């Protein structure tokens, strides 16, 4: 296998030239004994969305579709994201990927005592980064309203911006001073695309930490995830996030990357299906968040795919990424680089 000198293929540069994201480490403190579900992503996202709408909505319409100010409303942009007028791509779709991802604790713990802390991450993409104050205010409000059907109360104690390259954290909010501070911790796609390494990459293990549903040829991959399916899902997601939220271009050349991916083979897999249900208030019924967790090892010329796999760790892959599904990490690959 060739040694990867640099990961700056033309198609990757064009996909990532405008792409940017920011990651935040959030800590909340229980104000009472709390009983939470094992998988906490859907719980937080649902309650958070209701509070966010209450904060932002000026017309009190039940839906955003007919609202006169939907194109300037933070709630409509974040939670009801649709293709803008004149969009060249995905214009037939009613919804496009949302510009945020919740990463809830991976622990199975379900009970928290009063005074106990719970931490999670929030990833914002593109223009959503500028809406951080809305997210902070909404989390504070959610703590007063309460989460789950029991309305458990909590308080927001701190938020740190995480530098995805160095791992360093900068305080952006604390309960003590009740102020939002600016932080220079935005990850730019070109920084990842220009990442230089000196080792050969012919074998890579991915650990899927939360239920992952990757669709390939019309079916979900519940036994094994072919590498081409993984690459196809990640590149489509990154392309859409870049185009709709970062003012990037829609790059047709990603098809070449998918063709290259067909030569990469899965050689070992411990993937197992994890069944999870959530109740959707909007649909009035239970909805499945089921997917695979575990590890899978790929072998082949993996170097050219490293940039998209790195960004995929932050934006997740597959269905229901906003709930925290599709979270994975690359075994033995570190992004701790000097600025």
Briefly characterize the structure:
The protein has 339 residues and is of the alpha+beta class. It has helices spanning 10-16, 41-56, 74-79, 132-145, 189-193, 227-245, 254-261, 306-315, and strands at 20-30, 34-35, 100-103, 111-112, 117-125, 154-162, 169-174, 187-188, 203-212, 215-216, 219-220, 265-269, 272-274, 277-280, 285-288, 291-299, 328-330.
Question: Strands, helices and their partners?
Answer:
Blueprint: H1 10-16, E1 20-30, E2 34-35, H2 41-56, H3 74-79, E3 100-103, E4 111-112, E5 117-125, H4 132-145, E6 154-162, E7 169-174, E8 187-188, H5 189-193, E9 203-212, E10 215-216, E11 219-220, H6 227-245, H7 254-261, E12 265-269, E13 272-274, E14 277-280, E15 285-288, E16 291-299, H8 306-315, E17 328-330
Antiparallel strand pairs: 1-5, 1-6, 1-8, 2-4, 3-5, 6-7, 9-16, 9-17, 10-11, 12-16, 13-16, 14-15
Helix pairs in contact: 2-4, 6-7, 6-8
